[in-house]
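Support request, please re-run this one:
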Amino acid sequence: MYHMSMNSKGTYYNIEQGHITRVIEPIPKFSQEIIDYFLGLLPLNSVHSVYIKGSRAYSEPADSDVDFTVVSDELPEETHLLEQLIYKKFNIELDCIIGPKESFDEGFFTTCVYGDEDLSVTTIPITDIPPVSQSNLDSLINLHEWLEKCLKNKVYDALIQKNFKLYIKRCLRYTFLQTNQNVYTRDLYWCQKFIAKEFPQFAKITKQLVDIYLTVDHPLLIENQSLLSIPLQDSKILIQFLKDPKSVTDYTVALD
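Re-run finished. Output below.
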């Protein structure tokens, strides 16, 4: 069964009989405006299908980017111009993937907004959700070290803000995959809630990460980078947990 919080803070899905099932919600009005504009930027005769994913597929969050996947065997993968045009028109960031049909592997998390053939699906077995791999962890660690270096050198720009958000997404989503709540989500609000429920010793730091995600471009953070450096340093506890989930008990006293 599909759930949405009453205050539109994202979605989570119950796991029933080993499967995750979602209901395709109507596209919100503002998201539809973005979709219509985005489709107008594409040479649709060269496009197989287009999909929207993430929170803008079912809600209108003021702080979220917009995610599209374009299935095409002809279009180049470069999306920089599309990103510029979307930002100029709507003042939001675009996260866009362009690739051939053979590479499309996000069917459960997407809603088809253009095309005669819909590659998305509404039910998948839980075994299709990949576990956190060593390469996932290595990438997370490298991103953490890069952010630490930037903040240490007092460098903080739009690229760092974007990668800070990417780090928080991965950190929370990977940690959520270690829970046993019989639900699945990619939304950071619910990731944090379920992590805190099962591992209350992580509640404070995960809440801080969500707060930073929502305010990463706030002038106060830009002026006082310790507000970023300290939570970034504290989040290493989650990386250690991901490397060795059995060591969770070692953190209880330290975080009380």
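DSSP finds ten helices and nine strands in the chain. Residues 134-152 form the longest helix (19 residues).
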